[in-house]
């Protein structure tokens, strides 16, 4: 089994709806943590914790703009998750194609008899 702790962190972070929403918002444009917190019925500290989980997973990064910390989305990390899901999808399609080929061969055999 291939263990990729970065991928584990990415999917763990994306398992939470609030964190997925934060990623969506910061991919559209950078937001300060205060702006992000204003959109949720939770404390500023709770939003900061969500941002910290996303930052550890490299899904977002923070930069300083004066007194504010701006949170931006990391497209490259989203691409890594997409790449893994694409590999799973290709495996699934290969399996489905193999099943189709077996069924077609069985039909051909039945039609010959």
Automatic annotation (TrEMBL):
Pfam families: HTH_5 (PF01022). Gene3D superfamilies: Winged helix-like DNA-binding domain superfamily/Winged helix DNA-binding domain. InterPro entries: ArsR-like_HTH, HTH_ArsR_DNA-bd_dom, WH-like_DNA-bd_sf, WH_DNA-bd_sf. Residues 1-93 form the HTH arsR-type domain. SUPFAM superfamilies: Winged helix' DNA-binding domain. SMART domains: HTH_ARSR (SM00418). PROSITE patterns: HTH_ARSR_2. This is ArsR family transcriptional regulator. It comes from Gryllotalpicola protaetiae. GO terms for molecular function: DNA-binding transcription factor activity.
